[in-house]
Specification:
The protein is about 30% helix and about 25% strand. It is of the alpha+beta class and about 130 residues long. The chain has a six-stranded mixed beta sheet. The model is unreliable at about 1-40 (pLDDT under 50).
């Protein structure tokens, strides 16, 4: 799956990238059950849509394989893990992948990745 993404990221000129693979999330049944009970997650697999803006940003990121893997995991449980709900923001959800923030929205049965932003390190000049 990663080779598929890498090949597409090199020369994709379409409006968006739609990935609809139904591979099971690689955790055991007991952990899946416990997570879905505690966090009220949706156990239904979502379709992943990466918008053109996010694709353009993804091409510039050297750690894009890690971000793509996290997006694949997010398809199974879109409102779990380190997903943060945003208030008064253009995009309703975000999650962290290293020093990057991935902003997304849920549209029906689709998980739409809208933007990927790099967070700069804070130092004494920040404040």
């Amino acid at each position: 799956m990663l080779k598929f993404f890498t090949a597409l990221l090199g020369g994709l000129n379409k409006s968006c990238l739609v990935v609809n693979s139904y591979k099971p999330f690689l955790i055991s049944y007991k952990i899946t059950y416990k997570i879905s009970l505690n966090h009220k997650c949706c156990a239904k697999m979502k379709t992943l849509i990466i918008q053109p803006k996010a694709l353009k940003q993804l091409r510039r990121i050297p750690e894009r394989s890690v971000i793509i893997d996290k997006c694949e995991e997010l398809k199974q449980f879109p409102l779990c893990a380190n997903v943060k709900s945003l208030i008064n923001h253009k995009y309703p959800y975000r999650f962290r992948v290293g020093r990057y923030r991935v902003f997304f929205q849920l549209i029906g049965d689709a998980l739409s990745v809208v933007s990927i932003e790099e967070v700069k390190k804070r130092d004494e000049r920040t404040y």
